[in-house]
Amino acid sequence: MTDADRDGVRCMVLRGGTSKGAFFLAGDVPSEPAERDDLMLRIMGSPDPAQIDGLGGAHPLTSKVAIVSRSDRADVDLDYLFLQVGIAEATVGTLQTCGNLLAAVGPFALERGLIEAGGEQTTARIRLLNTGDIADARFATPGGRVDYAGDAAIDGVPGTAAPIELEVRGEGGVLPTGRVAEELDGHRVTLIDNGMPVVLLDAAEFDVDGDESPEELEGRADLTASIERVRLAAAELMGVTDAATATVPKMLLLSPPRRGGAISTRAFIPSRVHTAIGVLMAASVAAGIRIPGAVGHDLADLPADEGAPLGIEHPSGVFPARVRVLRAADGLWTASSSSLRTARKIFDGTVYPRPAASAPAPTPSREDPR
Questions:
Q1: What average pLDDT score do residues 212-222 get?
Q2: Are 114 and 12 in contact (CB under 8 A)?
Q3: pTM for the full predicted model
Q4: Strand, coil or helix: what is 139?
């Protein structure tokens, strides 16, 4: 490995879905978590609310990192580790994954030679190291190269691009406590994890109509404090360590749909409100509202066809989430999900981190999935 401070680090910046992140080959960055986290903070320009001295865009949706390698599992092509880099704080989270950046993992791997094109379309099987889930990503590769141009549009991203089909399969049940609903801090909640740990809440219980802007919700100190109390209680039940600084679970306020979808959402991620919705957040919401008795089930407008996509409304539009929810004979609820995303290569080159001598020390990682 080269001297990152002097020689820089090979890096590709890609948009994946409604997120943007810095992508690295695992062999180009330190394998030791503390050393890796320190480097990523210096590359992204954290801690600093503006991230003025790095690649970060001063928002959780643009302060993300993906580290990709060939997998050592015979039935998997790629391993994908997601890092949520703090902005104003020197933190690097590994407890969650990112389904939006997942859309760009296959194209990045082909660009870097980790996989070969499979013809006009290429399918990559990806292990999400943060969660252990397995995903299949199918994307266009005419002539053996990634084609980013196309006519697929997703809400929250201007213009169109080539479609990328994602299918994510989890292992085990989707209800961490085994209960469809319970009460926390005086509020009825559903704890669910269909690729992303989330807490489903009835927006009306928090005096939220459901059509407020992210800025309006973030400006209500009483609301954010109330949601944080519920989040901390839920985190303990969901096995999240160091909940006060963790980026999961995500908090979803649900209300009746307004734009022809199945449900309306406002997602706290957790301190900022998402301007759209994450892929796996949408998958967890869609699975939850399919379960009778769960928070949101009675608020939702569910299609009669159980295979039909569920329109998950969010501040920027509607996310079509396809989920299959099954209940086993022993009562265990399981689910899988599929979605359509797009991605685009923005930059490929060498990034130079802020010198170590001038950077604040990082907060130690909580739990590294590797």
A1: 97
A2: no
A3: 0.80
A4: strand
